[in-house]
Design brief:
- About 80% of the residues lie in helices and about 0% in strands.
- The chain has helices at about 5-30, 35-60, 65-90, 100-120.
- It has one domain (about 5-120).
- The chain contains four helices and no strands.
């Protein structure tokens, strides 16, 4: 199997996203008094952590679908999780309008990963 271009950069990025997910989860658990804010930030950090691992693993896949999947997962995390963080940690309430687009991109990323694996099997 041929290595995709720049897998090291993607792996470093995915690892940093995992790190920030853990840090933001800790902030939610220990520094947020509002139960709704705590739950929302914890959920966003969980989604970010899961997708950071998937992004890291996606570096093992090759082809155009895998490359597109990595970009979709990255953009989805930034929009979905970022919108929640912006609302509850920065009081930027309008940011939540971006969350549906981010969630859609996360789903597209998963779909592209499945397509990538199907193409590698053939």
């Amino acid at each position: 199997m041929t290595q995709p271009p720049c897998p090291r950069a993607w792996r470093v990025l995915a690892s940093l996203l995992g790190l920030t997910a853990v840090a933001l989860g800790a902030i939610a658990a220990h520094a947020l008094a509002d139960p709704q804010a705590r739950a929302a930030v914890e959920r966003a950090s969980t989604y970010q952590l899961i997708h950071a691992v998937v992004l890291w693993l996606a570096t093992l896949c090759t082809g155009w679908a895998a490359r597109c999947a990595r970009w979709a997962l990255l953009a989805g995390m930034l929009l979905f999780c970022g919108a929640i963080y912006a609302k509850y940690l920065l009081s930027f309430t309008q940011a939540v309008a971006l969350a549906p687009a981010g969630g859609t991109l996360l789903m597209v990323g998963w779909l592209l990963l499945a397509f990538s694996r199907l193409r590698e099997q053939n």
